[in-house]
Amino acid sequence: MTRLRLTHLAAAAALCAFGLPAGAMAQDCEHPIGAVLSLSGSMAAIGSAIGDAGQLAVDHMNEAGGLLGCKAAYRLRDDQGQPSIGVDAAKSLVEIEGVEALLGAIQSGITMPILTAVTVPEKVTQISCCSSAPSFTQLAREGGTEGYFFRTLPTVRPQGFVMAALAKERGYGKTAVIYVNSDYGLSLAKAFQEGVEAGGGSVAVMVPYNQEQASYRAEVTEALRSDPDSLFLVAFPADGATAMREWISLGGAQNLLLSNALRASEFVEAVGAKYLTKAVGIDNAQVAGPSVDAFNISWEEVFGEKPNGPGLHTMYDAAAVALLAAEAAGTYEGTAIRDKVREITGPGGQVVHPGAEGFKLAKEVLAGGGKITYVGATGPIVFDEFGDVTGPYLIWGVGEDGSLTTVDTWSVEKVSELMAKNAK
Amino acid sequence: MLGIALYLVFFLIVVTIYAILVMGLNLQWGFTGLFNAGVVAFYAIGAYGTAILIGPERPELIGGFELPFALGLLGGAALAALAGLVVALATLRLREEYLAIATFGIAITVQLVALNFDALTGGANGLIGLPRPMFGYFETPNLYNVCYLVAVLAIAGAVYALLERAVRSPWGRVLRAIREDATAARSLGKNPTAIRLQAFILGSGIMGLAGGLYVGFIGFVSPIDFLPILTFQIWAMLIVGGSGNNKGAVLGVLVVWGLWTISGTLISQVVPPSLQSQAGAGQAIIIGLVIVLTLLFRPRGLIGEESVVSKHVRAARVARDNPSSS
Amino acid sequence: MLQAIADGLLTGAIIALGAIGLTLTMGILRFANFAHAEMMTWGAYMALGVLTLFGLPTAPFGPLTFGWPLLVATLVAAGLTVALALLIDRLVFRPLRGRVGHLTLVFASFGVALLVRNVVLLMFGGRATYYSNELQMSVEVMDGLRVMPDQIFVFCFALVLAGAVYLFLQKTPLGLAMRAVSENPSLAGVCGIRLGKVVMWTWIVGGSLAAVAGVLYGVTVQLRPEIGFHLLLPLFAAAILGGVGNVVGAVIGGLLIGLIESLSVLVIPSGYKLAIPFLVLLVVLFVRPSGLFRGTSGGR
Question: Which domain holds residue B10?
């Protein structure tokens, strides 16, 4: 592995010595960027599009002249939704392919064993697009990640507080919470409860449900028994639709609060838009802005449709951060990449956006010894000491025709203010 | 080259852990003829048991006893054996397939407990930060992996030796006698239920041991480590290698797990992304076909059951394989 | 409480239909068929396939969400399910029957279950679907009890069907032959009952009931490739609780399992609901392994 890297460097140095233009020399050597995602298994429906988002970032980097004088090669592996397969794939990427920056995985239960068994021991930087479990923050606090773990998906904690603020604003005094029993659902529901209680209220009832059941009538009945005036549903689209249909048909109030994962046309179609006109939901990022547009436009150019699925923006940013950090480090090596991640996203540098143009600018500035600030497909990215980001949020609703509308936006500052107020 | 070797070490650790799991199943099915439809449950109980015993103490958890790894491993295996005892006691004196149904049930129950009993299992988040035994004593993680492989191989070897010895002992011959004809065994004064119970519990404990070793290797445990498909994978390993033969069982692990990991990589490269959500179904279908076709056409697997104790038994088996009447 | 009882009886009725087929297989063919619940999945999806393939309208009957197209589709689906059951018997179970210990049959059915489930997944994808996307509002029958018209239809239909099966087994020569084989196969053979024919009819009755149960399940809840997998344990619990081979027992067992499962949510967190049939099963096996009612000798 080390020898491989030296050869790459040597080749790059030799090419530089001959003064070849950046575009021409990018073909002779490769820096592999690894990705482990669920391309089959329970998350397959979203996995392959997320894989495409990573590919897009790598393609942009190559268009911009490659990575450290070489071609960036995207090595995507399937974890089949099984941790043991994901860990195996990660290990083979690191040892055989020589990957120093690994993207993924989607489910926290796969990301975590890859982190503890592969990337941390091997000193490889791992950036996840989609794992939201609070346990990563906890592990980082205990020193278990050694700083090698980052994620571009904002943790769900602030989301819960924003939703609690929203519930209060709308005058819901007795909200039932039905949440998916996963790391994501549990942490979001708990944060919401905390937020409501911090605001002096209390939630009517907290009901977890297990994924992929055919019916949630029992859970809905349990929630309705406390006679709530509103519902906060934390779910993924398919199960969420099941629970919501049963909630509505059993006569639950149509004062609905929806989690970010439900912002999908699949959910609205399955439930029926006419029941959702009073609903509000929350979602990460995608606040308007030139950096977000840059990503959206290039996605549409390549794939011919809007980037609406979950994880696309965050995956692009995960890949972009890994690539730019490697470029800034001047060497393709896990620890060096780790040490540059905060520098290239931190404030004060030349702002660069997604896309080949942005990456080209970034490379020029870095080559000249300058500093860059990558503002990504999700807007500005600020990693805290545990590798987490706080993002801006948007509040969405559903139109009569079933279209997803944006009702309001919460900037990072506004979210931070809310969190600071609650911390007291 | 070094990279490939390091990966192989890693790969072999997983293979060896699964081999222990398959040997446990082999004792139940191959030697005793007990059908366990919830292999994953005993594996999970062993893993969670170990994790809870060795894990760091946390205020929100019941567990976190911070015991030495060896004790945790034994504790996990003992818990798995205990679960085996409960299921076996309820079913073994009844119709044979009740055990199959009950083990299927325990697999679902264990999954639910892992997911819902937050205070014990960490719920969907799993248990993090579990110490890997003696990790600090090694200079590089890869050296550690090599040593862990040696340790796991030694344990697998011990299990193998124990089982080989046991099945060749008088106890083992009774096991096979019961598998072939329980009534005849009873008429010879053997108590089939008690002996089946012993074999089932021992097998469950071995499966739990494999679970504990997995935890020691990964340092983390969560519910998605124990999906129902794992039961089918383990069964495919056993049946491909040949039940009733420990060498075959180990070979089956290598073949099935090797093909499974390679096919995942191949599929992700060959199949267009739009079809990949179906690829998982394709793989599961292959596992199902392997099980059914092996049962139909090659019931003895790649190697098959080892030859017999006496020539009289061989004659009897030939007669059984070519039944003139049924 | 009332709501839980009503919901439990409804789920129980569907479990009962599935359990009839299972108890017959366990009684007559003498093995626990793990693939039986997958017949429900298969039947439910075949009906969906017929609806979408022929673009049949979903003109509803009165307050119901479905109309005659679904009934037609159900008939076709029942046919296709029987075909699948017979095909599996021909290809897998018959070659194994008699040649190996009957546990190998159980094992084979375990593999077949995985196959059927994933073939459905391959054909239809993993998304949850509905026969009709129209959402039905429940009606408040009395204070604290809401039911949907679909549910009432499903409940009555299931009970009528179970009654018909009972009459078939009691009154027709074929039914008598099936019961005879279930009671005592050797004696039945001596009396000139052709085993092959009885086996075939067991699959026909079990398969079509499973298909109908699957469709009814799809009407009241939704369609997913995992529905069979999740129903397998309740089916087994119902069959054993009712006494293996006993059709009336299976129906009562199914209703009881549905009720217990539904009522349990009042006491323990709903997350553990799926484990309830297993606990009931364990209790039955410890306390009264022969079931509440007299099973057949095949169910000993």
Answer: 2-227
